[in-house]
Amino acid sequence: MQRGISRTMGALFPPWTNTAFRLGLIGLAIGGTALLVTPMVYARSPYATGAEQPLLQPIAFDHRHHVKDDGIDCLYCHENAQRGPYAGVPDTTRCMGCHAQIWNDSVTIAPLRASYESGKPIHWQRVHSLPDFVYFDHSVHVTRGIGCVTCHGKVDEMAAVYQVKPLSMQWCVDCHRNPAPHLRPLDQITSTTWQPTPEVLTELAAKFEPRSLTRCSTCHR
Amino acid sequence: MTTPTQPIGLDALSRRQFFKLAGIGAAAAGIAGCSSRPAREILPYAARPPELTPGVATYYATSLVQDGHATGVIVETHEGRPTKIEGNPDHPASLGATRAIEQAAVLALYDPQRTRAITDRGTPAGWAAIERVLADARAEHGRGTHVLLEPTSSLVAGELLARIRATLPAARVTFWAPFAARASLAGHRRVFGRPLEGRLALHEADVIVALDADLAGDHPFALAHARHLADRRRVVDGTSRMNRLYAIETSYSPTGILADHRFRVRPSEIELVARELLAELAAAGKAPPELAAARASGPRARWIAAIARDLIGAGGRTAIVAGERQPAEVHALVAGLNAALATTCVTYAPSAVIEAGEASHELGPLATALARGEVTTLLVVGGNPSYTAPADQGLAIDRAERSLYLGAYANETAAACHYVVPGLHDLEQWDVVRAADGTISPQQPMIEPLFDGRSACELLAAWLGDKPVTARERVEAAWPRLVPSASFHQALARGAVRDSAMPAVQVGVAWSALTPNPAAPAPAAYELELRSHPYLYDGRHANNPWLLELPDPITKLTWDNAAQVSPRTAAHLGIHSGDIVALTVAGRALEVPTIVVPGQADATFTLYCGFGRTGTEGVARGVGVSAFRLWTTELGFAAPVEVAVTDRHRTLAITQGHWELEGRDQLPSATLAELGHDPRVRSELAHQRGPQPTLLGKFPHTGVQWAMSIDLTTCSGCSACVMACAAENNTPVVGRQQVLNSREMHWLRLDRYVTGPDEDAPIAVEPMACQHCENAPCEYVCPVEATTHSDDGLNEMTYNRCVGTRFCSNNCPYKVRRFNWFDFKQHSGLQVLARNPDVTVRDRGVMEKCTYCVQRIRRAEIDAREAGRPFQGHDVRTACQQVCPTQAIAFGSLNDATTAVTEHRTRPHDYAVLHDQGTVPRTHYLARIRNRNPELG
Q1: Cα distance between residue B184 and residue B364, in whole Å
Q2: Residue B474 class from Cβ within 10 Å (0-12 exposed, 13-18 middle, 19+ buried)?
Q3: pLDDT score of A6
Q4: Residue A106 burial (CB < 10 Å; 0-12/13-18/19+)?
Q5: Among B128, B675, B875, B922, which has the minimal tally of Cβ within 10 Å of its Cβ?
């Protein structure tokens, strides 16, 4: 009986369908993985994190010139980085401290003069932006041995400032789990060229006693 | 079908078109969601003030004023924006604490219904128009001009008023506030011959009798009283010494909650109780014998005799206090009682509030002058007299030829006056005022006036025709004259001038003034008691949604006004909470819902004033009914009332909906004697603490381990902590409907427990917020690890991880988690300026709860690390702890033997709520201990 049936009916699927089915399975696996992986890759890409994108600022401020050529320390303008949570942008009077004397008739800094005269702030574009539910404090990092360059990159080589690091939670936590290798002496906080040696790092770890701070409320409150 | 005029009508939308559009919409939403981060700006200061670091709060001392009584506060400002108010520890009227009202003042500053521009009958006008009105009011020495102010103690205004009375003698000055403390002045004038106020040294008193006096609640010096009372009630064990507080009152007050014995009496009986107490003292030879005739008989006799013996036994360390709502007669009797006991705890001193001749604090003459059309110019400076005037003295402001209102809010009086000038909030004000004890308290602005407001002093100076000066110049110039002994800048920094209280005066009692009155009329069937609302006061704070949503200390009612009635009277009348009754006093009727409250005197109704506002203030409008409509100067705050039950009902938004304990003793209470000797009580308490069998590992106790301890013996239920928590943690307001749905968002609630079968219904209050359990049931069930435990013992809530399953709330045995069912937060408007920038503003669909003020902990940790100090946590105070007038809350590290929390854990009445659940909560409580008079059991 069974033999009879198999004899009378031809194969329902021709042999190539096996290959097609296998290819389909592989395709499904690849597609499924891609569906999962693509957003993960995307979220980590500079496009999503906003890294490596210089922003158009109201004044074409050049850090290369001010930091590298003139040798102005980061904390001369961003002094609040060692005092409070925000490093911030210097107020107009800080800029005018120099620019009342030099380049005071330059067209480039016309918005600065306008702000100085009107008392209205300059609308700078924010380069490093954290979500509102993240509480980052500059001063505790700067005064406990974490340097500017660790998060902001070599700003002294940037024409227009851009974000270097992804500022993602994973990136924060990587350092928070083990901050010791990122320490530097307080007199090298603003240096962009200082390099650690193992002996110095041991010394710094003893001085700053860095702790692994991974409890949620360290940053989320 | 589509037509040219109707490209895609909904009616013509085919199924296919619908899916097309929906698809486009979904794709557009997807694309929009994928866009890179939105552009954000940084706006630095053009010129940064030198004392300001962006992101770091600055603190300034100033004073908030109510009816001329200043309370010193420290205001937290962020970039020049006031966000939080704390008490000023250096100010004698604050001692570091505030009430709920002061906590909410920061929201009132940003009230969108503030007066914003000078108007003339609703159309914009300039200051020049006001100057013309004032110039006219100067003519003929001010004839026909009346100025109506709020009671004030401002030294600057005092100088101006003295000049006004000298140069404009024909003008009349009246002060008005319905609940201003005037009765004690009149009563003391009767017995001492001069108007004086009592000053209490409650920290020295062993026996205190509060006769309808809410010492810890609505008294002008309540914060100091609460602290002084509580400092003598901190029970370490059964051998501790405590003061004994008797509260004799009609409706429950926070003082009644604190009391060891509370007696319910009808309003008309308060005077009898005072007389009978005096008679007992006279019978014991402490007062002239002719006063002994009024000795009590009937059910009161037993406890009045016992109180009298207790008072005599205390040897002069006693204080008897009458509430300001009581008539002058009662204050005179109480002065006699204190004199008979030769107490050292009550002294007398002049009032800090300015007088402007005889009867300057009565509304009657002004009401009459208005009705007769004798008022040419009426200047109303602050307050809301159109709303608060007694029913028999309605102010016919429209009968004045010209009327001008200076005030910060667009209220009923602003609507009744021709000219409206924006006034100032206390946080915008320069002034020099006095506290209730006379302490000189400077006011300095935290922020420039938001709406070009002007102060009362500026208006009075303009009326005098003075050259305009800035507010600061006026105060700074007057300071050396007004306060020659103190430096202006030191006083500003401290918030008070040291030792500037009014000195006490020697007095002798004229006993003849206390001869018994003719027989009191037979008591009415029902009596009505009118009280100021604990948060809205006389209605001035009724537009503040924080205060409207704050549950009443006793009734737990929000967003409404209801007549309180005792369970027995309710049963007798056949009514339940929410049933509407018509109350009629002297022919004036008012329909109000009732609320059944244990501990209310039988056959009485208590109604709070401050509701039923009819002005243009959007939040206040239509909430409750105005009890002022039943208030007449003749009858005062207590009157016979006729009651008619209607068949209508209003569902009341009460936050305590559960009335059963299911056999659990969640708030143990005992007497001091039982705590010392009763082994049963001691073992029952011991069963509610200590180790429980568990399968879970022990939580590692290393480093700082946060914990809280709340002393229920000193908790009065005043709710300042709830308000402080909401102000600190950006808790949203949800409105009456959502409160009815049990969706209120307060992280801290005060559970009210009736702790005994006694008819007087002893009430105790248990503050309940997240207990930060070591074995937290919420943490096991969170599928996304949004709620976790920190190594320092905090139960953390990470909002951005929460997906809103609400499993945690279901699994929480304390029911302290709050879910954002809707987008409750405010998105725009002035009010968002009141938010704390250090706390995340939560979104819809997110769970939240008490964090032990983790933002303050982390801030202190950062400060310690920056300074290179070891972090011990001694400088961390939670918002609820900091504001508590009685300092009932202790917070600190369990790993530190020097902290109060560690010491509280060793006391015999330490317990954990739902201890048998094995959650190991970090918040413990100290059981409620009462120091009962053995004679009364």
Answers
A1: 19
A2: buried
A3: 53
A4: exposed
A5: B128
The tens digit of pLDDT for each residue in B563-615 reads 999 999 999 999 999 999 999 998 999 999 999 999 999 999 999 999 999 88
Q: Report the residue of A216, A218, A219, A220 to disrupt the B interface, i.e. the one with the largest count of B CBs within 10 Å.
A: A216
Helix (H) or strand (E) holding B422: strand B419-422
Contact in structure between B77 and B59 (CB atoms under 8 Å): yes
Contact B47 A119 (CB under 8 A): yes
* Residue among B36, B794, B800 whose CB faces A217 most closely: B794
Minimum Cα–Cα distance from A79: chain B residue: B53
Average pLDDT estimate for B241-245: 95
Contact, A147 vs A194, CB < 8 A? Answer: yes
ipTM of the complex: 0.88
Over residues B436-458, the mean pLDDT reads 94
Furthest-apart CA atoms within chain A: distance in Å: 107
Cβ distance of A91 and B48 shorter than 8 Å: yes
CA distances from B504 to A24, B304, B344, B730 (A): 97, 30, 12, 44
Q: ∠ CA B511-B517-B519 to the nearest 5 degrees?
A: 150
pTM value is 0.92
Token code pair at residue B387: 């709303």
Model confidence pLDDT, tens digit, residues A44-57: 888 888 888 888 89
Under an 8 A CB cutoff, do B40 and A84 touch? Answer: no
CA neighbor of B228 nearest in space, from B86, B92, B74:
B92
Query: Residue A50 and residue B37: Cβ atoms within 8 Å?
Result: yes
Residues of chain B with Cβ-Cβ distance to A123 below 8 Å are 41, 43
Helix (H), strand (E), coil (C) string for B169-230:
CCCEEEECCCCCCCHHHHHHHHHHCCCCEEEECHHHCCEEEEECCCCCCCCCCHHHHHHHHH
Neighbours of B500 (CB within 10 A): 18
**Is the CB of B45 less than 8 angstroms away from the CB of A120?**
no
Report residue B547 as tokens.
Answer: 């205060």
Of A67-76, B356-365, B859-868, B885-894, the range with the lowest mean pLDDT is B356-365
Judge: A124–B53 Cβ closer than 8 Å, yes or no: no
How many CB atoms lie under 10 A from the CB of residue B932? 17
The conformation of residue A64, written as its DSSP 8-state character, comes to I
Nearest to A217 among B40, B841, B858 (CB): B858
Asked if B753 and B765 touch (Cβ cutoff 8 Å), the reply is yes
Question: In what helix (H) or strand (E) does residue A207 lie, and over which residues does it extend?
Answer: helix A198-208
